[in-house]
Every structure is written in structure tokens, then in C-alpha cells.
Amino acid sequence: MKITSIDHVPLYQPDKEKIVSCGEFSEYGDTPDTKEEILQRAGDAEVIISSSVQFDRDLLLSLSNVKLICITSAGYDRIDVQAATDYGILVAHCPGHNMNAVAEYTIGLMIAASRLMFRSATDVRAGRYDQYQYLGKELCGKTLGVIGYGTIGKKLAEMAQRAFDMRILTYDIGNTQEELYMLLEQSDYITLHLALNSETRGILNSETLKHVKDGSILINAARGGLVDEQALYEVLKEGRLFAAALDVTENEPFDLDNPLFSLKNVIITPHTAWNTSETKIRWSAQIAEIVQGYSTGSPTYIVREQQKLQKSLLV
Questions:
Q1: Considering 15, 33, 205, 244, which has the largest number of Cβ atoms within 10 A of its Cβ?
Q2: Is 179 a catalytic residue?
Q3: Is 223 noted as a catalytic residue in this protein?
Q4: Structure confidence by residue, pLDDT tens digits, 74-98
Q5: Domain region containing 309
Q6: Residue 271 falls in the annotated catalytic set
Q7: Structurally, how many domains does the chain consist of?
Q8: Which residue, of 251, 268, 285, is where some domain finishes?
Q9: Tens of pLDDT along 96-119?
């Protein structure tokens, strides 16, 4: 079996050795620029590992030898899962490895936004010192609305309850629109932890954002496409939201012309919530586990949409 990591996927040596034990392994240290380069790297590999390539229907159709694509993130919105299924390709992803990191980072963004930390730190560097103008908010005893109550959402809720005695409201796909409105109306803090797909794209938009509680704070450390950025800009500019802290935006790398950058009550960081040394250790081990599982006929971490079909796709 041939296995190829077609872009930069840093693996720890013990995990790399586990992958090598499954077959002929090759790897690349950068991101391919064109479809032709992707196909050249993939060659006749049966298993592809990728951290950044966009797999659309056209590309998947051309990967005639591939039977498994391992996406090295928890989110897998950069692959057309339906097309992969149509062409008999299994898709695995890496959920859970970043659970602690993203939950902790979300708490950090909640505090930073509540206490105007980014603005005050920037002012101090510019020589402005006025401790009285940064009137913030406390987390203790407030209501946290968690949109997307999966692995990360549950970990965040646990942290928020234990550390800050927060009341937790939750919403998941499958709940009603009225339940989402209720969460937005009652929450002092709103955090997003959904996968991005056709059901969730723009879940916070001009209509749903009308229901946010005045003075609340929005945190997004999931995917930028979950939020209509123009609608978010409007509610922030109007002052209905106290602040927003975003580790993700619709376009990445970020578009500096994005009007959100012009607002003082917005924190934007470069999609780094997941990035800890501990996460990378778990991530590397998980990738090796996925390859080993597939090689023995027992694939692991197959995406939700394919779980009922994975036996037929292995044939």
C-alpha cells in the first residue's frame, strides 16, 4: 500500500514509523500550488494525508487510485464528502485532539474581550495610560450560550461552569430555530463550535443576530463561514454586541479590507486556537492510528456522513 502526505503534515518519529510499517510512505514539506502538482504528488497512492488542500469534485474524480483521504483537522469542510462517497473514497478526520486547546483559547478570548485587553495593551504600547477608560465585564455567574455541543463545546461548558459558575445554554443542529433565538436572547456570551457545512453556513446572520442580548459578547474559534460578517459588523457598530473575538474569518489568510478590522471592540487572531505542543502530539498519533486502522480493515475516525457506508466503501 502506498501512502502519501501531499502537503506539510509534521509527524513525530514514532508515529511516522507506525505509518511506514503499513506501507510505502512519502511526504512533502509544503503546500502544492496547482491541481497538476497535487496529482503528481498523489501518484498511485491508496492513502492520502492532507492538512490544507481543497478537495473539490473535479480533483476527487482525478484521484482514481485513492481509497482513503485523511484530513488532519477536526473540521473537514475543505473536502466534498458527497463527491468522495460517489467515487468510493473514505474520508477520515481528526476530532478531539484539539479539544483542550480550543476550549482554553475560547475562555481566553472571552476574558480578553470582556476586559478590553487587546485595546488596552495596544494603547499602552502607543504610550497611552488610562486605567479608568477600560470598563469591562466579569464572567462569574453569567450565561454562556454554546452553539455546537460536541467535544469542544462540552469541554468549554465544563470549564466555564467549574471556573466561573456560568449557566450553560446549548444549541445543536437538529434543534429548532426558536431554540436558537432563545439562546441568543438569554446569553451574555455566545460561542460557536459547529462544523461548517450547508446546514450551518451563516447560522449567525442578519436575522438571527437580531435576537442577541444587548451587551453580549460573541466568540468564534470554529469556522469563519458560520457568521455573516457584514451582519456581525452592523450589530457591533450599533453597539448591540459589547464585543466579538474571532480566531477565524470567512477568508483566510485574512482580508485586511474586512470592515471588522476597523472596530475597536473586535479581536481577531490568526486561526491559532488549536496550536499547542500537546495538540500536535495527539494529532500526530491520531493520524498514525487512522492509517493503521485502514491498513487492517478497521478504519477509524470516518466522517459522520460516511459512517453507515464505510463497509461498502472498503470493498
A1: 244
A2: no
A3: yes
A4: 999 999 999 999 999 999 999 999 9
A5: 2-96+277-314
A6: yes
A7: 2
A8: 268
A9: 999 999 999 999 999 999 999 999
